What does this fold into?
Amino acid sequence: MKRPTQVDVARLAGVSRATVSYVVNGLTDGRVPISEDTRQRVLAAVDKLGYVPDARAQALRSGDTKTIGLIIPDIRNPHFWEHAEGVEQEASAAGYHLLLSSIALNLEYGEDIFKDLSHRRIDGLILMGSFIVQSQEAQKLLISLRKRRLPIVEISDRNVDYEVDFVMSDYRAATVDVMAYLLSLQHRRIGMIYGVASPVLAEDRLQPYQDSLLAAGLPVDQALIARCGPTIEDGYQSALQLLQLPERPTALIAINDLLAIGALRAAGDLGLRIPTDLSLVGFDDIHMAKYLVPRLTTVSKVSTRVGQEAVRQLLVRINDPDIPQQKLSIPPSLIIRESTGPAPF
It folds into this structure.
């Protein structure tokens, strides 16, 4: 069946096509002299015919698309979905739609996704993850987009030194809190599951972990740092490796909750009780962390809030392109649950 047009609506309502356009585009309210009776007739005709305005035509007329692009690092990790949830909530409340892409932790693919989004008609772009700092091609494209004055906000774990707005949530201070907490429980052999897609990621957890050990007079034992990929299976295999050392760790820190879930399963398969035999800490506080058995001690960024704040920054930039760079830091916090306890003796 042919899609109804404004002409069809105008014919049914007994008005001009221009009147229909004014009503469906919200240009009444005193700005165009259209009576309430006429407006209601147009709306009734729209409803009866099932007329839907052409978003592409509206965008061409107004110069905006009411669409925000979002790039997340890994579609498999619930942590990034929670950021996206916050972005979607705030964007929807402001009347914007979301165009979501994932780079699948692949730098070359990420460059292609970034390039594709840069060619689309969007009102602004939110970037998540640090593929920008890893890619010269992405940095060149970023400079080009800034010259075009496309509003861009980055969700980052570090200060952004190029000219885009950013929301930062750095795990350094929270990692120091994690280490202080485990050391206070008399843990001295503390392992780390360092599961990243790129060596530059998660340094805000690795470096404070090492510094805290040295500050406590303990050695940094490389055998206790399992370097692996970012999946649950990687966490499982790395935990098996660490927990079968001749002198195994009494506590494990996984740099994200997915890795910690893999470690939880590995400990169970080896007959270890958590937290009696082994304490376990994750990062990100994904929704399922508080429903595991035992509930997972972790560090929370309040990811939905981070996503919401990124959209707020973007909307400010859309409405006022010439304001100075916007910077917001949201400090994470340690959440102590059931998966940590005193070191076994």
User: Anything to note?
Assistant: The chain has three domains: 6-53, 64-170+303-331, 172-300. The mean pLDDT is 87. The radius of gyration is 26 Å.
